[in-house]
Structures are given as structure tokens and as C-alpha cells.
Amino acid sequence: MMVKRLTLLFLSALLMFSAFSVRAEGMPDWEYPLEPEILDDFDEYIILANRQHLLASDYAPNDLVNTTCKKSSDAGKPELRQAASEAINAMFAAALEDGFTLYLKSAYRTYQTQKTMYNNRLDKLGRDDGLVSYPGASDHQTGLGADILNYEWTKKDGMNKEFAKTREAQWMEAHCAEFGFILRYMSDKEEITGIKFEPWHFRYVGKEAAAYIMENHLSLEEFTEEWQAYIADWEAQGGDFRELIIQRAQVNPVTVLDDEDGEEELSIFY
User: Which of 64, 69, 219, 254 could form a disulfide with 189 if both were Cys (CB 3.0 to 4.6 A apart)?
Assistant: First the structure.
């Protein structure tokens, strides 16, 4: 029984390796720390929104869901994209196990809502103070950004960098990547992001990208510049990123399953 399973697993690995070797012939080795499929997801979870990369006024994710996590009393009915909503539930549950109760303050915002907030800020201060994103440049419009606080800070009129001193903020910065989130606006990245330090603002990018970004202390801007530069250099050496993605998708995984009688079956998924 064990020999059969090992044999099938070996054949599976051999088939996948052979297929990849053939399709990769003529292309340089892919050595970036993240799989190309994650970077191909640019229009999804690693999408960048800032003053240089504005979202269209009619941009809106098509998989927004009402969040079910704990919320501040003034949060209304915040929405997030499905994956981000599931991830925030997992993060809130883990925080609670460690003795921290988190509250969602704000999530998805439309372009028009952001425009109103930005203009109100300008009218109040007479200048852009870097605390409210320009319309189209807001991380919230992606449906992947979330403002998260503790109970004490949900009762305050505004938010500022002092929140970083709370145990909840420190827990989130230390653990957010485990759930696919990054600290979007870091204290030492203000000149790069164009946004003041926001220790309450977390952005979903997926677990693999989040781990890489947080481990290397990158802003989303730096990460985007890095991987785009890698692809440009890789293609200059003879690679074809689009073709690589297509060919990798054509490699069908072969999996060993147990049937109802406990016997192994060879299953190929298309």
C-alpha cells in the first residue's frame, strides 16, 4: 500500500517536473522570492492605489461582502472583499485568544465618499496634511484596506500615531502577515507613501506577499517597484512573463486520493 502511494507520488512529481522543464526551455530561471502567479494577481490583492496610481472613479470590487467581525459603534455596515473579510475574522479571533479585542472602524469606501472626505479635510485645514487620501488614491477603495482599533480608541474623535503605543497596535504589526495583512502606512515610509504614519491601517495582500513585505520592511510602493523591476529585467534576459503564467497553468497537478474502500486512487484535476 505504501509502495503504491510512493510510486504514484513519484510519478506525479516526475510528470510535473518534466512538463515544467519543457515549457521553461529557453527562459531564464525564475529566482524572485514569490511565485509568478502572485505577481500576476496585480489587479487583485496586490493592487496599488496612490497619487501616482489612481483608481478610476467607477472602480469597485465585485466581491464585496458585509463584514461579520466586531465593529466600532460608528462603523455602520462596512464591507470588504471576500478574502479580506475572511482574513480579518481569523485575525480578530487570534487576537482574542491572545487577550486583545479588536474593532473594525472603516473598510471599503467608494470614490465619491473618499472625494467628499478629502474635500472636507481641505476646507477645514486649507491644505493636504497627508492624513486623508486623494480620491482615487485611497487604499480603502480597493476593498482590501481596513482601519482597526481597540475599544479605547473607538471612543476618540480622531486617530493619530499615539495608537501605535497600544498593545493591540503592536500585536497587529507583529502578527498581521500571518493572516495576509500588511501595515500599509509605516512610520518611516511617509515620504514614499505620501501618507502619514497610520498604525491602525492594515491592507490585505495575501499571506505570501504579506510575509515577504513585512519581513523586508517594505511599503507597498517599494514592493511594487521591486517586483516590476525584476520582471522587466527577467524579460530583458529572454523571459516572457505572460507565457510563463500560461504554461504553468497548463501543468495539471496529480494527486493521490483514498477511495471509499481505503484504496489509493490517482486523480488528475483539470
Answer: 219
